[in-house]
C-alpha cells in the first residue's frame, strides 16, 4: 500500500543554490521514475472526503447550476451563487488532485501541479468573494449560523491559499504541505459538512445544527491533517 509522501513546491528552484537550500532542492526534485496514477498520498480521510465532496460538487453543485436539480432552500440561483458554485467546484477538484499527487512524484506531476495550482489560486479567491456575497446578500435568509459557518470555511480556504503561496516562496516544504492540507480539509470540506442538511436531505434544521456540523468538520480535518503529516493511512 502506498505511503503518504507529500512534499511540495509549486515552483522549481530557479536561482543558484546555497547550502541552506539543499534540503528544499532534494525534496522538491521530481522522481526520475514517475509514480503510477493510483500511487499517491493516500489516507482514508482523503478518500472519504474526496468521495463525499465529489458527490456534493458534481451531482449537487453542477446539478443546481445547470437547472437539473432544485436549488437549496428553494431560493433561485443568482449570478453570485452560480459563479461561486462553478469556481468552488473547480477549486475543490484541483485540491483533490494536488493533495494526492505532489511534484516529487514525477516531472509530469510537477508540471500539472504548477498549472493547476495557479488556476486554483484564481478560482479560490473568486469563489470566496462570490460566496460571501451569496451568503450575506443574494441568498441570506436570516440564518446567521449558516452564513457564519460558510464564511468561516471560506476564510480558512483563503488563509490556506495565501499561506501556501507565502511558504513556497520561503522554500518551506513542511509549511507549504500544512497550508495545502488545511485548504483541502477545512476550506473545501467544511462547506460540504455545513450544507449536508440542505443539499443532502433538503432540510432546514435549526441554525445551531450548522455550527455543530462545522465543528465536526474541524475535528475530521484534524484527523486528516495528522494522518497526512505523519505519513499514515489512518
TrEMBL record:
Keyword Nucleotidyltransferase appears in the UniProt entry: no
Keywords of the record: Membrane, Transmembrane, Transmembrane helix
Protein origin, superkingdom: Eukaryota
The keyword Ribonucleoprotein belongs to this UniProt entry's keyword annotation: no
Membrane-spanning residues: 44-69, 81-100, 112-137, 143-166, 178-201, 207-229
Name of the protein: Aste57867_17529 protein
Gene giving rise to this polypeptide: Aste57867_17529
